[in-house]
Design brief:
Length: about 100
């Protein structure tokens, strides 16, 4: 008959606050990157619908308004793309 000796279970080590902060920062940077990618996709979809709208309209005023909106969406996409690149860079530096 064998005897089992029960050893006390060691208490869990306290979480390293530095590691926890690094992981939290990396997670939030990743969330920001995902949000920017979604913004780019939404701007692209909006541009698509404006192009469809322009094809349906013969009104020159509507075309001017659509053109301004397209320019704004294009700029939004460019800025979001730049921000996404910065987010990827930040994420890489964090990790």
């Amino acid at each position: 008959m064998s005897h089992l000796t029960l050893l006390p279970v060691p208490a869990p080590l306290p979480a390293d606050p530095t590691a926890a902060a690094i992981l939290a920062a990396a997670r939030e940077a990743d969330n920001a990157k995902q949000a920017l990618a979604q913004a780019i996709a939404a701007a692209t979809r909006a541009e698509y619908h404006l192009i469809k709208l322009a094809g349906l309209s013969n009104d020159p005023n509507a075309h001017r308004t659509i053109g301004r909106a397209m320019g704004s969406l294009t700029r939004l996409g460019e800025l979001a793309g730049d921000a996404l690149a910065y987010g990827e860079d930040a994420h890489a530096h964090i990790l």
